[in-house]
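Below is one record:
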Amino acid sequence: MNSFESERKERKLPVILSWEEQKNLLDQPNPKAPTGLRNLCIMKLMMDGGLRLSEVINLKPGDIDFEVRYLIIRENGTKEKRTMWLGEDTLDILARWVKIRPNCEYLLCTLKGGRLDDRYIREMVKRLSLKAGIKKNIFPHSLRHTFAADLYRKTRNICIVQEALGHADLSTTMIYANLIKENLEEALKFFRSGKAA
């Protein structure tokens, strides 16, 4: 057993979604219904912005700037922690939600204007992932993991991923480099072999 295989056995790699699984999951909420639109916003913010579940729940309407296209993510709901730039698609969906959302303290809230419960979001993600036919055990944090892995795959810059996730310690972020390395290893094992990985 080489050192990489030994290291892999000692750590648990995060579960991430493939491009097809991401699309299938995001296709599940009905954006014509208020709850469906809100739930789509929640998943897009985690999958396309790398937000934690607690960060999504605590977002305030003033934390988003549609003109400059960024989101302020605050620590404990007050102190600015980091800034995340959002894609046009995510901003468009958020803008649609803002037009119909109840007048309340939080950006993403219940239809009665209450604070969202984290258990509801966990159950929602689980339910929609099963509906999408995803066999993996998916949690809200899996969407953040997916964002991080995709960002590292695209940039190959672990420091960018660290900043986007708001990690204080780079060693925490290194798991995504290890994950991509393992995926490459698995792909190369079957490269030109005629077998499916």
Notes: The longest strand covers residues 79-85. The beta strands are 64-65, 70-75, 79-85. Confidence is low (pLDDT under 50) at residues 1-10. The domain at 3-189 is CATH 1.10.443.10 (hpI Integrase; Chain A).
